[in-house]
Amino acid sequence: MEYNNNLKWKAVPLNGLNDVEGLVGIEECLNYELNFKQTKKSKNKKKLIQSECVSSEKQKQRKCPKKKIKSSSNIHLTPSTTGSTIPNDQSNGIFNDESEDKSMNSWKAYDFPDSILKGLSEQGFSYPTDIQSLTLPSAILGRKDILGAAETGSGKTLAFGLPILNSIIRMKDDVKNVNDEKPLYALILIPTRELAIQVKNHLQKVAKYSGINIAVVVGGLSAEKQERLLNKFPEIVVATPGRLWDLLQLGHEHLSKVNDIRFLVIDETDRMLESGHFKELQNLLEKINADSEARKHRQNFVFSATLTLVHELPKYLMKKKFRGNFEMTSEQKLKKIINLLGITNPKIVDLTHGVGLSQTLTEGRVNCSFQEKDYYVYYFLKKYPGRTIIFCNSIGCVKRLTTLLTLLDCNPLPLHASMAQKQRLKNLERFTENTDSILVATDVAARGLDIPFVEYVLHYQVPRTGENYIHRSGRTARANKQGLTLLLIDSSELQNYIKVCKTLNKNEDIPSFPVEKNCFEAVKQRVNLAREIDKLQLQVKKTNSEAGWFRKVSEEMDIILDDISMKSDLEENSKYKKIASVKAKHLSNLLKNLYS
Ligand SMILES: Nc1ncnc2c1ncn2[C@@H]1O[C@H](COP(=O)(O)OP(=O)(O)OP(=O)(O)O)[C@@H](O)[C@H]1O
């Protein structure tokens, strides 16, 4: 019999059995009547995805794409006026179908303190998600280390958050009675700053009534302010490795307790083990693991949607020399992580089946030339309004596309690593506030960000790895909601596209996304005009900055500038400005008409 991902499990209280040697926990299967045939059938059904791709408040205004994948190469879009919902029997089983159960009974098995139950109830979390119900018994009742892999948006944060909060509340009660100690109980390491802040906020909402203090330590924000927060002795610190390492070096009193922590989480672990983060992580782990006795009492959590994903080596690494080192199976990859973190005998839960894509996600692709990508982006944004993230492979591309879409009145918000941290957070906030907002981002926004109602993810360029495809796409179709991910592929990216498909174990092409060609001429006209304006504005900027530079240098060197050439530059500039402004007026008139 095949492993069935749709089975639901519930922890059974161990009443009196806690001392049985080797017993970690007992789980009861809630839907055991499912037989093999039904499972296969429901798997096939999932290929026919009927989706409601817009949030209810927007349904009336939009031409909602109701997607039905009929064959490997076709998506049939028919506008939906009714806004059909995904039928129950097609639910993906990640979030159990107990939506009517508001009684919180499903949490009872874990014996959470009232404060936690209150926090969960206030968030509307009436029952655990699959990854939560499969890991909580071992984590809470068995105090096991956990290695968890589950699809994007499936609730992994609380899968490690709840056992930690639960244990801290109980430990705090004990410590209070003994002395006035203020321990650092848990350290949660996260690869990106935005994600660290989000994880902290997510945990804080559930811990609202528990009196547990959670601090975030990330780069880009005031170090002094973060030190002040640490001075309040938070029980949990959520941190990016770089800033944490810096503060540790400075010898902050509270952080000096890191080798005595009781819980360590490495979220998005595979990303943390990549070069760029790896060195800092290794330094930290050495420090954290320094006390081998304390290490034995620590519970470790390792989570990611792509923990067990393995991909083919790039050609240059395929040479014999590197073979042994890089070709790793999922199991080897996990072992490497386990060794590095000093984890022993963990409970491994992998719900991804080798792929971490959400089952409520619809995938599509458009093959086009590099030049045409802007047309397709603009076409899509106009035809399918809704909260959208456009991913690019470089900061330069984000900047160019943001300028172009701004000229086209789309109000895009950029997000990339060379922006000031405050601006990054501000743009994320603005993106979250508006239902039709557009974020143009590098992969800095690919992992973990949980922004509600992101309906579409566009890949302006094919992501470099399968992992990136999964994480980028995982910004939509979260927590059982529907979403669409669309790849724009030019001929130079075909190889990479094939590589991504291989990593994702796809034996079929991603379905081609249908485009209505009748309005395409209008789209092209507007985008071309915007490109011309962009070029003229760039020229004006360039001439201005060159003139400024000449002026500065001449002043410094006490040289008199050639007035005639300066004048002609300035005249040329004002000519460009005029042409740009005429074109901008023309564009503004054209923009009023498209799809209005
Ligand atoms: N038990 C629950 N019931 C309902 N919603 C939940 C529950 N647990 C978590 N959620 C919600 O599900 C969403 C996704 O959770 P989370 O961000 O933890 O996903 P994730 O698996 O970590 O995703 P990613 O791999 O992209 O980081 C969040 O909005 C969270 O509030």
Automatic annotation (TrEMBL):
Biased composition (Polar residues): 74-91
SUPFAM superfamilies: P-loop containing nucleoside triphosphate hydrolases (SSF52540)
GO molecular function, one term: RNA helicase activity
UniProtKB keywords: ATP-binding, Helicase, Hydrolase, Nucleotide-binding, RNA-binding
Region annotation (Disordered) ranges: 60-91
Any matching Pfam family: Helicase_C
Keyword Hydrolase: yes
Motif (Q motif): 105-133
EC number: 3.6.4.13
Sequence ranges assigned to domain Helicase ATP-binding in this UniProt record: 137-325
Record's keyword annotation contains Protease: no
PANTHER family assigned to the protein according to its UniProt record, in alphabetical order: RNA HELICASE (PTHR24031)
Record-given protein name: ATP-dependent RNA helicase
Source organism of the structure: Cryptolaemus montrouzieri
Species lineage: Eukaryota, Metazoa, Ecdysozoa, Arthropoda, Hexapoda
